Amino acid sequence: MKTEYTLVLYFKSTGIIKAFTGAFFLMFSQGVIAYLLPLRVQELGFDSKVTGTLLSTFGIVAVLVFLLPTNRIFDKIAPVYTLALGISLMGISQLLLSASVNIALLYGALACYGVGFGFLFPSINSLLIDSTSKEYRGKAYGYFYAFFSFGVVVGSSLLGWLALGIQEGFILTGIILLVFAFLTLLGNKSMLKSRQLHV
User: Which residues contact 184 (CB under 8 A, 6 or more apart)?
Assistant: First the structure.
C-alpha cells in the first residue's frame, strides 16, 4: 500500500514526470544510436571503425559540457529549460544523421548529440532532486533508472518492429524527441521557481 501511495505521489508531480520521461527519451535515443549508427556508417561506405570514433566524439563533447565553465548555466536557468534544450539538440542530431552524406557531417551530428546529452543528463537529475524529499528520493531514483533501462530497450526494439529504413528511423526519432522537448515546456508555470521543493 505504501509503495502504491508513493507511486501516486510521484506521478502527481510535474517535475518528477519530466525527470522520468527525460530519462526514458535520453536512453530511447541512445538505443536508436546504438542500433542505427553502425548501419548508417556501413551504408555510406565508411570503415566500421568510424562508428567507434563517432561515439567517442559524442562522449568527449558531453564530458566537456560537464566540465567547462558552460556548466554554470545549470545554476542560472531552471532545469526544465536546459532539459528542453538538451533533448532538442539530440533530436536535431538525429535528423542530421538521417541527412549526413560525408564524414564531417556525421562528426558534426554526433558533436551536437554530445552537447544535447551534456545539457539533458544534469537537468533530469536536478528535476528529480528538486521534486522529491529526502524520504522518497532513494525510491525515486530506483524508478528513474528503471526508465533508463526501459528507454534503451524500446528505442532499438521499436524501430526494428516498425521495419523502418535507416534514414526513416533517424527522422522518426528526431521528431519524437523534438515533440517531447515542446511538451516539456507546456504548463511550465509550476516549474519556474527552480529548486523550490529542494530539501
Answer: 18, 21, 22, 80, 83, 84, 87
Residue type, 26: L
Residue 1, pLDDT > 60, answer no
Cell numbers at 60, concatenated: 568527449
Q: Structure pTM?
A: 0.83
Exposed / middle / buried, residue 22 (Cβ in 10 Å: 0-12, 13-18, 19+) = buried
Q: DSSP letter string over 45-90?
A: T--THHHHHHHHHHHHHHHHHHHSGGGGHHHHS-HHHHHHHHHHHH
Amino acid identity, position 64: L
Query: Region 140-167: what's the mean pLDDT?
Result: 81
User: Cell match 531552471: residue?
Assistant: 78
Show Cβ contacts of residue 100 under 8 Å, excluding neighbours closer than 6 positions: 40, 44, 106, 108, 109
One-letter amino acid for residue 74 of the chain = F
**Length of the chain, please?**
199
